[in-house]
Structures are given as structure tokens and as C-alpha cells.
Amino acid sequence: MTALSPVQNLIEVEDKELLKLYINGEIEALSELFKRHNSKMKTIAYRITKNSADAEDVVQNALISIMRSAHKFRGDAAVSTWLFRIVTNAAIDKLRSIKAHPLYELPNDLPLLTSEISVKDLSLDLVQALKSLPENQRNVVLLIDVAGWTIADVAQKLKCAPGTVKSRCHRAHAKLAQELHLHH
Predict the structure, then answer these.
(1) pTM (predicted TM-score)
(2) Residues 92 and 119 placed together within one structural domain of the fold
(3) How much is the pLDDT for 161?
């Protein structure tokens, strides 16, 4: 493998070579690889999630995974097959995350809280409540509730058991509810 001259056109380079170039520091090579396969990656993500916004998130998460794990590509399959498998796995993870954190419709007869408190005040209160949490609980809440990670992903990232993640999250939610005066 030789380094590309600035003049050489990346369009003419094969996928495996583009991946090798990226691993060796050529960011533009990865960009070209994404351009080639972006449409198919979005199609796969959409077929699994059935939602265009979720599909966009899936492709973005998959691209991050690809960037982080490019050096692990073994070459057993085509680069496109490897890319599509990562997108498929990211889409499945997204569905699991949605299932683990479902959105609930509020009843129509609830009083409008926005008339009583401003969103800015609530945001400041929430930030203060998050700051009051121990770091390990705050990290878990931010990764799961804000970033949308699965418990398994957080456990892997923090190198702890999924049960530990669940208990930290539960304790953090309880403390946040207490800090924000959200009693049932």
C-alpha cells in the first residue's frame, strides 16, 4: 500500500484500501467510504427502525463505531458487508433502547405545568440536581437518559456489571426525584 498523492482521486480506490488508508491517518478515505455506502446504510437502518429520525441516529452511531473499530476489520468479508453489519447491530441496539425507555403519552386532563414554572427554571433545577449526584450515578444517568445508551453499553463502557448500572441509575433517579420534589 502506498500513500495517495493529494491529486489522486479516492473514487478510484477500492473499499479495503480506503479502510487501510483511514487506519493510517487519511480521514478523507473514510469520508469517501461513507459516501459510497451511506444510502444503503440509511436504507438498512430505516428498514429495521421504521423511523427516519431513528435511522439517522443509527447511521450516525454506526459511523462512530466504524471509526473506533476500523483497525479491527479482519478482511474476512467485503468492507461493505462489515459496514452493513455494524449498521444492523446499531439499529437493533436502538430498538432495544427504545423498548427499554418507552415514551408514554400523558393524559389530556393534566394541568399545564408550563403555566406554573418556566422551562429555564426547570433546566437550572435539573442541572443543580445532576450536580448533586455522585459522579458514578451522574455518569450513568447522562449515558442512559440523555445519550440513550443501553444498560449493557454503559456496563461495558464503565467496566462494571449491568446490575451495578441498574442500581446506580435507580439511586440516581430517586435522588433526582427528591431534589426536584417529584413525589408520586
Answers:
(1) 0.53
(2) no
(3) 92
Angstrom CA distances, 34 to 18, 48, 73, 82, 94, stand at: 10, 20, 16, 13, 20
Residue 9: φ, ψ to 5°: -90, 120
Residue 15 structural domain: 10-100
Classify residue 105: in a domain, yes or no. Answer: no
Do 76 and 154 fall within a single domain?
Answer: no
Q: Does residue 109 form part of some domain?
A: no
Cell of 37: 455506502
Dihedral in degrees, nearest 10, Cα atoms 75, 78, 81, 83: 60
Q: What is the CATH number of the domain that holds 49?
A: 1.10.1740.10
Structure confidence by residue, pLDDT tens digits, 62-116? 999 999 999 999 888 899 999 999 999 999 998 888 777 665 554 454 444 444 4
Cα separation, 167 vs 173, whole angstroms: 10
Q: How far is CA 151 from CA 31, 65, 96, 101, in A?
A: 31, 17, 10, 11
Total residues found in the chain within this entry:
184
Whether residue 47 is contained in a domain is answered as yes
Biggest CA-to-CA distance, the chain? 68
For residues 120 and 59, membership in a common domain is answered with: no
Q: What percent of the chain has pLDDT over 90?
A: 38
